[in-house]
Amino acid sequence: MINVGIIGATGYAGYETLRILLSHPMFNVTCIVSKSFVGQKIAEIYPNLYNVCDLVCDELDYDIILGKADCFVVSLPHGASQEAVATLYKAGKKVVDLSADYRYENSSTYEKTYKLPHEYKDILEKAVYGLPELNREKIKKTSLVANPGCYPTCSILGVAPLLAEKLIDTSSIIIDAASGVTGAGRNQDLMYQFNECTENFMAYKIASHRHTTEIEEKLSDIAGKEVIVTFTPHLVPMKRGMMATIYATLNNAIDSEYIYNVYKEFYKGEYFVRIKNSDTLVVTKGVVASNFVDISIHIDKRTNRVIVISAIDNIGKGASSQAVQNMNLMYGLEETLGISQPGTYL
Amino acid sequence: MINVGIIGATGYAGYETLRILLSHPMFNVTCIVSKSFVGQKIAEIYPNLYNVCDLVCDELDYDIILGKADCFVVSLPHGASQEAVATLYKAGKKVVDLSADYRYENSSTYEKTYKLPHEYKDILEKAVYGLPELNREKIKKTSLVANPGCYPTCSILGVAPLLAEKLIDTSSIIIDAASGVTGAGRNQDLMYQFNECTENFMAYKIASHRHTTEIEEKLSDIAGKEVIVTFTPHLVPMKRGMMATIYATLNNAIDSEYIYNVYKEFYKGEYFVRIKNSDTLVVTKGVVASNFVDISIHIDKRTNRVIVISAIDNIGKGASSQAVQNMNLMYGLEETLGISQPGTYL
Amino acid sequence: MINVGIIGATGYAGYETLRILLSHPMFNVTCIVSKSFVGQKIAEIYPNLYNVCDLVCDELDYDIILGKADCFVVSLPHGASQEAVATLYKAGKKVVDLSADYRYENSSTYEKTYKLPHEYKDILEKAVYGLPELNREKIKKTSLVANPGCYPTCSILGVAPLLAEKLIDTSSIIIDAASGVTGAGRNQDLMYQFNECTENFMAYKIASHRHTTEIEEKLSDIAGKEVIVTFTPHLVPMKRGMMATIYATLNNAIDSEYIYNVYKEFYKGEYFVRIKNSDTLVVTKGVVASNFVDISIHIDKRTNRVIVISAIDNIGKGASSQAVQNMNLMYGLEETLGISQPGTYL
Amino acid sequence: MINVGIIGATGYAGYETLRILLSHPMFNVTCIVSKSFVGQKIAEIYPNLYNVCDLVCDELDYDIILGKADCFVVSLPHGASQEAVATLYKAGKKVVDLSADYRYENSSTYEKTYKLPHEYKDILEKAVYGLPELNREKIKKTSLVANPGCYPTCSILGVAPLLAEKLIDTSSIIIDAASGVTGAGRNQDLMYQFNECTENFMAYKIASHRHTTEIEEKLSDIAGKEVIVTFTPHLVPMKRGMMATIYATLNNAIDSEYIYNVYKEFYKGEYFVRIKNSDTLVVTKGVVASNFVDISIHIDKRTNRVIVISAIDNIGKGASSQAVQNMNLMYGLEETLGISQPGTYL
């Protein structure tokens, strides 16, 4: 068994990583770190863990935690993650960082987007962007994975085949996305209070969400040229689940069957990516509590546009289970180990 | 008081029209017609009406109902509405039709979209499209109003100023919309069952929703040339509320303030259209249970696109309260009578 | 028009009172007071009020507000309300207090329950408990109404006929109640965050909720002897609505029809109390956004118990619309003025 | 691996059993039977299973299915289950029946409750009531388990220690319970439509729910004398989760600590029963998607009543995962195999 520590274990992504690892045959969580709940059992915060997990929250004291685990999942706010990741990495640990701090190849894009200097550019260079379907071999060889954002995971996997196969006008991409409320984290803002969220739908951070530049950097890599997108996130009154509805103009008139086969071929052998016929509805509850990505592709012949629907669980494939997928790869384990099960649907 | 009949009163749009009219100072519902509940009190179906409304459902027998009211709201499925509206209209009644049957100027577009012949083209020619903010004077003079669809109301009011002022490339319009579940009506399909809908988000009828051609016909009128749009509806796990997130490419670089003023000017004096600053969040619960339309406009400078957020209550401004707005106009009453109140928010 | 001030207008009960009064033909809100939002428009907090209500929040400065209104609704936390109500009352204003501060006849019960001294016992003596169906004549003559708690309103109206007619063992009353989340107010506690509340049901403050003593004092009055009850509240993942399921042992075997008639007779002429047949389902959405109380009564012959279902809107009849009902009575207006409409159902 | 067939696999309980067994190390589902979906893949109905489970629905043809599996879970409506279970049992299969058909020791109680004759009384005599915490040894030895109802599971486990230890007046038991909407099954009734269920709470089948007699038969066994209870179920706007709030009068004054210890002792060694301190909130989301039962016990000193809160997942411990627990026992496997994980919480 490989001993794992989770920094920021009481937030939703940290907690979900813990929950997944409790059933994992090769990883054993031996250390959880929290800022606000030091000395408390995680089961006092998440009552489902009562009598199942007896872990107690440590403070972020490296003298203590470095001896407790070989691999760390860091689930801290961006900015705060920079130093924690650097410290763990320098100490020879394998690290998966859930924050944005090590996601960008171009540190100045990070600095402009997050309005923060990057203090560990040497380590940033070592980081691998943890999207296994596009980056598998690099992930296998690295000790530092920057786990992608939820919107980027959902969007990039949806668009990638179109760019790789040069099927679309790269300046035409519009990503209209929607997320469940766990996307905001374990957050006490009034905006996320039940009475405010339920029976409500809204767009937010229109043309200004920070995930936009992350999406663009990765899409530009795939396209081999700069890709600029319009990105609009929405908040949906549900806990979990995320959908990107992606629009782009086709370079040539192609039909549904053709493009379906492009996607099938591009994601051939990928267990977690499920390409659906254009007459099958993709629904977020088909992927919730799983690591799957469900994608359908539709041609709007009248406007010569392609519309891609891409659905994930924002805290599954969009955060925690993707972190475990990356850990499996980093340790040379079967990629699907502990995360192969379907979602709950109900 | 003006006597009103509602045909199809037990469906959600018919019911909501009744509920609104119960508090209206000038309209008095004297007749409700239902197919499935003949002889039953409406209060047996909608328990909130117990001891408040004693109306009993009639069957659709013109000998009976023509004598009971001077104005009829018809809330039947498309197709079924054709004959009912024609009969009432020919009998000299004022009619507001909530179906799609009389919404199209071009009957062949209707026939292609709904895959039905139109049997009353002479009467179709008399119908006025009931979007008061764009069509007020015609509505005042007609006896037959075709009440717009919910998605069209939300979309057209969001796009109209851009087209009227020729600010956008007319071939670039993408409408990504989302609706609460009442949009599907009082519908027993498994898909709309609580366990299936809650905690779920999905796109449906991608590039094939029937409201697309309705939107296009009206936008083409405004643009003075043919407008084709990409339209994708989504289903949100909430009862009421609708949002359109509309994308278009600007003809020229303009800023947020400029475009805000274009909208303010275009909708000057319109009580029900509220133009918000681009830094104010538009939320569906701001309009639910009201006749308001909340709109914010955003410029994505990097891509030279405009993004318009337009929110309505799908069964309010998207159906029932807009029907009452039209009735007020048809009878020369104050346009806001009985529908001026804000939504409930909670 | 009577000028009204609302102290604590940005909380849910204060806001809802404002929303109701915006459509009231005789009351005109001229002053709203907030602690946290001084100088801000209420429409910035509740976007449904945009362009509908231009009121700006005042601070609680009596020099300013006393001149602005003749009647005040005080919606402050218990304890904080004591002084505010006393000040307004002494200044000759009519006051409806939504807090618990003036609800108890016995100040020591209040002090034990709320663990606070009562500093204005002389004024407490003047206060009338604002449950119009039981206390109408006193309310008409007072200048100070203590508006009942939501659970007490729902429970007392459900039990009253049983006690008044001496049909039950007074020591056998168990009240099992459930409330929507607005019952917790505009509250940022993590417990009321969307992700925590949704898809969850829980009992809380079991055998220790503060509304218990309020219920007991009023039931004891009706019974003419001390009544002690077991009271268990639950939290339901919905915004609005409250139900009390009340159990008591019958003194004698009686049947459903008999007891139905007892309730019909007891609440004869009461517009807001709707007694339903035992074969009709009482549902909270039948009363949400209204001032109605829906009650059904059931006999469990096998155990000789009566089961009463009583449903209200916790912030309607349980707070704001009941406050308006009391204001109507205090001013000699028609009791149902501005609050007679049915709930929204959808 | 043991081959398992599921009769009625497309309903919620059948599906959930399948989903659990997909991750079970010893059971292998080889056969699924459906009435409405013969020839269709289960993954067409439950999209989360796409590419995960390729099973196709068989019709209920014993010639086919008897050869496919050694153990059957029968998830048919009551009545329909009688013959299916008898046939499978007589063919030498191990059977877990999720319906009510084989739950009663007293067939006449069954016949009165379900208004159906029991055609297989000889087989009924062989059936063991599958509540492992109370009936473990018998389950280990039987080939036919009648899986308990969801309300009975939740209620009986909550009350059992009180009766076993003779701590309460057996005539004083009131069970006030609440269930998520999956309790109604995959049901197209309008009552369970999203718009009807959401934002609504209701009691139903007051003093007349069929689970009452099931609860009574089992509690009478424990008490050693006839126990009659009052039982009121409620419907909560959530998918999964169930809570029973149970009231009884204590024979003697005892305190919280004493009774807590009684429960701890009674359920000593039971992995799935978690007794919580009376100051810990029991919440349904603590058990959803798990086989756990969370119980807290509270003393209302003023009325000398005990209040027990018991929470389960209605389709987990209340149906499918309890079926698997029973199957584990029937096959001599570790009781917790495949069902030991905590719920999802989020």
Secondary-structure map:
Four copies of one chain form a homotetramer.
Chain A: E1 2-7, H1 12-22, E2 27-33, H2 42-45, E3 57-58, H3 62-65, E4 71-74, H4 80-90, E5 94-97, H5 107-114, H6 121-124, E6 128-129, H7 132-141, E7 144-146, H8 150-164, E8 174-179, H9 194-197, E9 202-203, H10 211-223, E10 230-235, E11 242-249, H11 256-266, E12 273-276, E13 293-300, E14 305-312, H12 316-330
Parallel strand pairs in A: 1-2, 1-4, 2-3, 4-5, 5-7, 6-7, 8-10, 12-13
Antiparallel strand pairs in A: 8-11, 9-10, 11-14, 13-14
Helix pairs in contact in A: 1-12, 7-12, 8-10
| CATH fourth-tier homologous superfamily of the largest domain in chain A | Dihydrodipicolinate Reductase, domain 2
Q: How many domains make up the 3D coordinates of chain A? A: 2
How many alpha or pi helices of chain A?
12
CA-to-CA gap between the ends of chain A?
32 Å
Structural class of the helices, strands and pairings of chain A? alpha/beta
Q: Quote the average pLDDT of chain A.
A: 97
State the name of the first-level CATH class of the largest domain in chain A. Answer: Alpha Beta
Rg over C-alpha atoms of chain A, rounded to the nearest angstrom:
20 Å
The third-level CATH topology of the largest domain in chain A is Dihydrodipicolinate Reductase, domain 2
Estimate percent helicity of chain A.
25-40%
Task: Please provide the count of β strands of chain A.
Answer: 14
The stretches of 5 or more residues of chain A where confidence is low (pLDDT under 50) are none
Query: Hey, roughly how much beta strand do the residues of chain A contain?
Result: 15-25%
Strand/helix succession of chain A: EHEHEHEHEHHEHEHEHEHEEHEEEH
Largest interface: chains, residues each? A-B, 47 and 47 residues
Q: Per the principal axes of the C-alpha atoms, what is the gross shape of chain A?
A: globular
Strands ordered across the widest β-sheet of chain A: 3-2-1-4-5-7-6
